[in-house]
Specification:
Strand content: over 45%
Shape: elongated
Subcellular location: Membrane
Number of strands: 79
Largest sheet: 73 strands, mixed
Structural class: mainly beta
Keywords: Membrane, Transmembrane, Transmembrane helix
Helix content: 10-25%
Organism: Flavobacterium sangjuense
Membrane topology: Single-pass membrane protein
Low-confidence stretches: 27-31, 1108-1123, 1125-1141, 1392-1397, 1459-1505
Number of helices: 18
Radius of gyration: 60 Å
InterPro entries: TamB_C (IPR007452)
Mean pLDDT: 75
């Protein structure tokens, strides 16, 4: 039962519990339903907001609230009014979740994610109030404790969409500070605690009312009463990106935001920032558009006074700014004073980029001329305001380097700004900066104080050094300046110590007043006007002292004085001295001007009158045109006149133009006035030389009031380079509105040509000049021609305008018998011409001037047309020359046709030369005009063309140029730069060199290549036509358009004739010379250089005649010059000069022993020396005609012919080792020779001992030293076969020089010694017999004979006590062959006691080897006499000798024990011709069969004459 009761109680409790829970649930359900109702929720929200509004005094209203069961809250139309009941915060919808309802009720807003749609925050600063509306609202929740205010609002995420943020300040004229629209943001960890706001701006986009559209803004944001912090700030717009850290510091209590630009302090760090000026311009419009910069910096301060440190700004044009800078008043509320001060480590930019950065600040303050600085690098300090600039910097620019410490003020008008300080320029182009091309780079260190940067405003003083100043193309150096310059006044002094200008200047140039003032003194110690680029000449040097004191602003009113003293001027012609020159200009009371020039050295005269300088030319034109009724006079002021009268010195003309000179007594006088009927001019001079043309005795008279004639010109002669005119006279008269001229003169080298020209001048109705020719006579080259022979008044005239630019030529006909030349056409300016020249049966020789090196003959017919239209030239011609001759060489008939197509831009040329039915020359091709250029494409062909026409291009130096050319060539290219190419094969070619008397022929088919400006002679053999010696020739003949011929020929030979001349009266040398070596012929044909560098070959025999020798005089028997006479003669001696104009010779001959050299001291007597030896001789003959010799000749063997009249004729043997040295003058050669003459004589008369009575061998030795024209001979006598004791006794008698000289000369003249008894008959007879023996020897022997026989007879001496036998003997010299030589002397005594003995010497020599160094000898010779009374004895013997020349012992060993190998050149060398250069159309002619002729390497070349 109890169990049942228990169960019933449990059931009852269960029911009650269930009912209770159900009731609670129903209650909760009902409560939930009630709370979910908007009305209930709104009531609850109103309750909460009312409580907040009541507690905090705010105005918060929520129109509708929706709360979900899970705590979600939606607020619609939330409105918070500020303390003026204006909107502070409004949101159309706020969606969030309430995390703590109790705290919400207590004013703590703890939300989950908070979403605000169309959120609007408007912060106002009402007029007169210091706090913003937001400040007032937030202060309502502030409990006064730091960061622990009653109000708390937190949200994890805040999302703003389509929102707006506005800040207004009604205390300013423009109240709107901020207006962000289209604001969308995501804020994380958003919190408002009391007045402090913190959040992490994850993203934010908005449009600023100024125009900036921010695509994203991210930062850690903090807002307090004292600062706003944006950490990790990143801002992105369409063109900009900013990354950094921003802190705004302010004092809210002081209401800093009311003056935001001046009180709110920024502390900004910018990293990796790219700024676009298009964005910045929305805030600061001074920047230019479309510019971008990368920027790094730290910025501190307010917007109107901030410092940017460590600035690193770069634009995309490589402009750079690095440094620290302070800006003030960038954003003034009212116009403020801009200020910038920078310490720049580097600024790299240019004027354009820099002014674009701040166009209204820098663009208006910096001088516009600075754009020429280009890209510059700037380092230094600069301070800029709107009133002044302080700059201490170094700047490297495109114009140069500038270093400045300068203060500038009044920069509002920068071109007229003031400045003072120091300026250093280093290679700075000032002229480019100020637009003056005459000024260039300047280097200077100058202190300046003044104002103005342009010519209009400049007014500055300066002092310092100018190290370099380029003016007028010249760099001046070392200039010191101290002065002032105010356009247009310069006052001060400067000193120039430049290498080409030494100058001092002190004075004033004042061009500012009505009449300019010139008052200065300049001393010029040296001025090279050529180097300074004032004069274009080879030499122009001025020195002088100049003092100027004058006033006036033009030549018309200039008055004052110019004084030039102690001056000189040097040009290419001479050095001119002008000690005194004074020019004075003055005006009298009536305004008549007098210019007086006084300089005895240059010019003396005056000009008096009333006139304007710029109207003088017009006055002269009116005076000359007054003769013609059709003349339209120039407008000139009335009542003008001037009279002039000058005595001219050539010096004044030559100073200004060295190509013109005047003779003394040159006078110029006359008068002219604006009255056109008064013009007179008289000019007279004995001689005028202008540009190498000479005018002798010139007289010019012009007088338009003279009733007989108006002008008269007379000259004795006119000499030009090409033609000479003499007896010139011209007179003109006026009649019937026409000036008639008559001119007569003679012409030509000999005056055989004469000209009688009659022409007139008038002005037609179109005011053009007309010059017409009446019938006139011209005799040219002995042929009489007529101009306008038919006297047609409408023909033979030239019409031209006053500017001399347009001409018309009407039928100007020149005729001679049936020959005529007609010229017509027009010439309009420089670019349009139409001219025609017609030849009818004209003899070429009659009309062609004498052309050097060419003479033309033939019969010419045809036309030549020349047209030009702008740059297009259109020549055409049809010419035919019959019987053409050039240099009297008949070439045949020549045709020349040029035909153009319809466009007149392409012309076909066809020309040929026919000679005896053979087309010796032909030219065929086209002439085209393409792109204003004339192009040629012409083929040339030659077939046995006679080269004799070139026979005179070598002048008198190379003549008899001959041969026949065959082959092809081509001309193509621009007519101003033609290209020639081709190859010719020359037969029967040759040439002659008259000076050398040599003639050479070329091998058959020698090759000549034709190029642009050369005829290239390919390597070929040449042969001299006399001795058939051969050589090798190559080189070229150069020309400029077939003028200005030049030769460059090279010759190489083993043995070639180089000289073949005979003796002439003025011959410097003559004979035959054969060369082993090289030679060249170079230079223009009018001044050729022949150079030979070779050694003498076999057959060389050169003779050098000396016509001024004085060793022996003819006036007395024998007398030697005294030293004083020799010295006087030497001083007066001048090197022998012969005229070889047009030729320069340089013969450098290495003389060997196979050559003969002979110096002839006297042509008539044969007195001279000749021999063989070794040495080097250099012969030079230049164009001035001077002959020179240089070199040394060392004698190996030779003879000295000592001859005097008919008394002495002795041949001395020259000892080996003697020398002759030339140092220029052939007659001043230095001799150092010894020659021996051998004879027999009885020395008994010398020793006075009758026991010795015998003729012995005697050697007379003459030493010749000193100058060739005045040698100093020294005689010695030797007795080779006399013993030492006897010789000593004899020599004792001959110790005295005078005695030895007397005995030697007596011995040479008589064959005996001079005794105290004087001359006897036997001695004279002995001399006559010796002369006869010499003649007999000449008959029976010659220089090249195999055997030489010379008989001699010595007369017996019958002097008492000195009797000797006579002797008849024969000297024999024979060269049996190249190895064996026999020399001997055999005699038989006659006329004495013993006449049966045969006496004499004999030697036979055998040359063992070829070079003659090893020889065998067999001899018989008479014994030496060793004492008085000794008889005659003989010695026989055999010997061997070996000769070696060496310089060192090693060389001796090599020559004895080693064999030298001598390389030889093969005798026959075939010369290959390079055919690779031949065009395909050119073939080498086939050679006909010919015999192979072997060259003889050692062919003799000895003259047979």
């Amino acid at each position: 039962m109890e169990k049942i009761k228990t169960n019933n109680g449990f059931k009852r409790f269960r029911k009650i519990l269930i009912r209770t829970i159900i009731a609670l649930l129903l209650l909760l359900l009902l409560l939930s339903i009630a709370l979910s109702l908007p009305v209930v929720q709104t009531k609850i929200a109103h309750y909460a907001t009312d409580k907040i509004n009541k507690e905090y005094g705010t105005h918060i209203n929520i129109e509708e609230v929706a709360v979900t069961f899970f705590g979600g809250v939606k607020l619609k139309k939330v409105l918070i009014l500020d303390h003026h009941n204006d909107t502070l915060i409004y949101s159309q919808r706020i969606k969030t979740s309430i995390l703590d309802l109790n705290k919400l009720i207590n004013g703590k807003l703890l939300f989950g994610d908070l979403r605000l749609d169309y959120f609007y925050l408007q912060i106002k600063n009402y007029k007169g109030e210091k706090h913003t509306s937001l400040d007032v609202f937030v202060d309502a929740f502030d409990d006064g404790k730091k960061a622990s205010g009653k109000f708390l609002m937190k949200s994890k995420n805040v999302y703003l969409t389509n929102s707006r943020f506005v800040m207004l300040d009604y205390n300013r004229p423009n109240p709107k500070d901020v207006d962000f629209t289209k604001l969308n943001a995501h804020l994380k960890d958003f919190q408002i605690k009391g007045p402090n706001v913190t959040t992490n701006i994850n993203s934010m986009t908005f449009h600023d009312h100024r125009g900036v559209q921010v695509d994203n803004l991210a930062a850690n944001f903090t807002y307090t009463k004292s600062n706003i912090i944006l950490e990790k700030l990143e801002v992105t717009t369409k063109e900009s990106f900013l990354k950094g850290h921003v802190v705004l510091k302010y004092n809210k209590d002081n209401h800093d935001f009311s003056d935001f630009n001046n009180r709110v302090k920024f502390d900004v760090t910018l990293d990796s920032t790219t700024l676009a000026t298009n964005d910045i311009r929305h805030f600061y419009k001074e920047l230019d558009k479309n510019q971008k910069f990368s920027l790094k910096s730290k910025i501190k301060g307010t917007l109107n006074d901030f410092y940017a440190t460590n600035v690193d700004l770069k634009d995309y044009k490589f402009s750079t700014i690095r440094g620290d800078v302070n800006f003030k008043n960038l954003f003034p509320r009212a116009p403020g004073k801009f200020y910038m001060k920078g310490d720049f480590k580097r600024i790299t930019s240019n004027y354009t980029d820099l002014t674009k950065l701040l166009p209204n600040i820098l663009g208006k303050k910096l001088p516009t001329s600075l754009h020429k600085l280009g890209q510059f690098n700037f380092v230094g300090d600069i301070e800029v305001t709107q009133q002044y600039i302080n700059a201490d910097f170094v700047m490297n620019t495109a114009l140069g380097i500038i270093e400045s410490d300068l203060h500038m003020s009044d920069i509002n008008n920068i071109d007229n700004a003031k400045y003072n300080g120091n300026i250093i320029l280093d290679g700075f182009d000032v002229g480019d900066l100020i637009n003056d091309k005459t000024i260039g780079k300047v280097s200077m260190n100058i202190d300046v104080d003044g104002k103005g940067f342009t010519r209009k405003y400049i007014n500055t003083s300066f002092a310092g050094d100018v190290y370099q100043l380029k003016y007028n193309g010249y760099n001046y150096t070392k200039i010191i300046v101290d002065g002032s310059f105010k356009q247009p006044i310069f006052k001060g002094e400067f000193y120039v110590n430049d290498p080409n200008l030494f100058m001092d200047f002190n004075g004033i140039l004042d061009l500012s007043k009505k009449e300019n003032i010139y008052d200065f003194h300049s001393k010029i110690d040296y001025a090279n006007l050529v180097k300074l680029n004032f004069i274009k000449d080879s030499i122009s040097v001025f020195k002088g002292d100049i003092v100027v004191k004058a006033t006036g602003n033009s030549f018309d009113n200039l008055k004052g004085n110019l004084l030039l003293t102690n001056s000189s001027y040097q040009n290419k012609k001479d050095l001119f001295f002008v000690d005194y020159l004074n020019i004075n200009s003055s005006f009298d009371a009536n305004g008549e001007r007098a210019i007086v020039i006084n300089s005895p050295d240059a010019i003396d005269g005056s000009v008096v009158g009333k006139y304007k300088f710029n109207q003088l030319q017009k006055m002269v034109e009116n005076s000359l045109g007054s003769f013609y009724s059709n003349y339209k006079p120039n407008k000139v002021l009335p009542n003008q006149y001037l009279k002039f009268d000058f005595d001219l010195n050539s010096k004044i003309i030559e100073i200004f133009n060295p190509d013109i000179s005047l003779a003394k007594n040159t006078k110029l006088k006359g008068n002219i006035s604006s009255d056109s009927k008064n013009f007179k001019l008289d000019f007279s001079s004995p001689k005028v030389v202008a540009y190498d043309n000479t005018f002798d005795n010139i007289l010019v008279q012009v007088d338009n009031r003279n009733p007989l004639y108006n002008a008269y010109v007379q000259l004795d002669s006119i000499k030009t380079k090409h033609y000479k005119i003499r007896d010139f006279s011209m007179i003109n008269t006026f009649s019937n509105d026409t000036l008639q001229f008559r001119t007569e003169f003679k012409g030509g080298k000999k005056g055989n040509d004469f000209y009688n020209l009659n022409f007139y001048h008038t002005i037609n109705n179109e005011n053009n000049n007309v010059v017409g020719f009446n019938k006139s006579e011209l005799q040219f080259k002995d042929y009489l021609w007529f101009l306008n022979e038919k006297e047609n008044p409408e023909k033979s005239k030239i019409v031209f305008d006053k500017k001399l630019s347009n001409f018309s030529f009407n039928d100007i006909v020149l005729s001679h018998g049936n020959e005529s030349i007609n010229f017509i056409g027009s010439w309009n300016g420089k670019r349009n011409k139409d001219l025609q020249l017609t030849f009818d049966n004209v003899n070429l020789n009659k009309v062609t001037p004498d052309v050097e090196k060419f003479k033309f003959d033939g019969n010419l017919n045809g036309k030549i047309n020349f047209k030009q239209s702008n740059a297009i030239f259109q020549p055409t011609s049809t010419l035919q020359i019959d019987s053409l001759k050039v240099n009297d060489i008949a070439l045949g008939k020549m045709n020349l046709d040029i035909q153009g197509d319809e466009t007149l831009r392409k012309f076909h040329l066809n020309s040929n030369l026919e000679n005896q039915n053979v087309e010796a020359f032909a030219a065929n091709g086209d002439i085209q005009i393409v792109d204003d250029k004339t192009l040629l494409d012409i083929d040339l062909s030659f077939d046995k063309f006679n080269l004799g026409v070139l026979g005179k291009i070598g002048g008198d130096v190379i003549t008899n140029i001959r041969g026949f050319a065959s082959g092809n060539a081509r001309i193509d290219g621009d007519i101003n730069d033609l290209d020639y190419n081709g190859r010719l094969f020359v037969d029967e070619a040759g040439l002659t060199i008259p000076y050398l008397n040599t003639d050479y022929v070329f091998d058959k088919n020698s090759v000549v290549d034709v190029t642009e400006n050369k005829f290239i002679i390919r390597e070929t053999n040449i042969t001299d036509t006399k001795f058939n010696t051969k050589g090798n020739l190559s080189g070229y003949i150069k020309h400029k358009q077939f003028g200005d011929w030049q030769l460059d020929l090279s010759i190489y030979a083993k043995r070639l004739l180089a000289l073949n001349t005979v003796d002439q009266e003025d011959a410097a040398y003559y004979g035959n010379a054969f060369m082993n070596g090289s030679a060249s012929i170079k230079g223009p044909t009018g001044n050729l250089m022949i150079k030979v560098d070779a050694e003498s070959a076999k057959g060389t025999d050169i003779k050098i005649p000396i016509n001024d020798a004085e060793a022996i005089e003819d006036s007395k028997y024998i007398r030697f010059k005294t030293p004083e006479e020799k010295k006087k003669k030497a001083n007066a001696n001048v090197a022998q000069a012969n005229n070889y104009n047009g030729l320069e010779l340089e013969f450098n001959f290495e003389i060997t022993e196979i050559a003969n050299i002979e110096v002839i001291l006297n042509r008539e007597s044969g007195h001279g020396m000749k021999g063989k030896g070794n040495g080097t001789l250099l012969f030079r003959i230049n164009t001035l005609g001077k002959f020179q010799m240089f070199g040394d000749f060392s004698v190996v063997s030779g003879s000295y012919n000592f001859k005097y009249g008919g008394l002495i004729d002795k041949k001395f043997d020259v000892k080996k080792g003697g020398s002759i040295n030339w140092t220029g003058d052939p007659m001043a050669a230095v001799l150092n020779l010894e020659a021996v003459y051998k004879t027999t004589a009885n020395p008994a008369v010398l020793i006075d001992n009758p026991s010795f009575n015998k003729k012995v061998d005697v050697e007379v030795i003459i030493g010749v030293k000193g100058n060739l024209t005045s040698p100093e001979p020294d005689f010695n006598i030797n007795f080779p076969n006399v013993g030492s004791s006897l010789k000593s006794e004899i020599q004792y008698k001959l110790d005295d020089k005078d005695a030895r000289q007397t005995q030697a000369l007596y011995l040479l003249s008589t064959g005996s010694f001079l005794s105290q008894d004087g001359v006897n008959q036997n001695q004279l007879s002995n001399n006559l017999f010796e002369k006869a023996s010499s003649l007999f020897s000449d008959i029976f022997s010659g220089d090249n004979d195999k055997i030489s026989i010379a008989p001699e007879y010595i007369v017996a001496d019958r002097t008492p006590g000195q009797q000797t036998d006579g002797r008849f003997g024969v000297t024999v010299s024979s060269k049996i062959n190249d190895r064996i030589t026999v020399n001997g002397k055999v005699g038989v005594p006659v006329g004495g006691i013993t006449e049966t003995a045969i006496v004499g010497d004999l030697e036979v020599q055998y040359r063992v080897n070829r070079d003659g160094t090893l020889n065998l000898r067999v001899f018989n010779k008479e014994n030496d006499i060793t004492y008085i009374g000794q008889g005659i004895g003989y010695t026989q013997g055999i010997g061997m000798s070996y000769e070696v020349d060496f310089d060192t012992f090693k060389e001796l060993v090599n020559k004895i024990f080693k064999k030298d190998v001598i390389e030889t050149i093969p005798p026959n060398v075939k010369i290959e011709v390079d055919d690779s250069m031949l065009p395909d159309s050119i073939e080498k002619p086939e050679e006909k069969d010919k015999k192979n002729v072997e060259l003889k390497p050692n062919q003799e070349a000895i003259p047979v004459e």
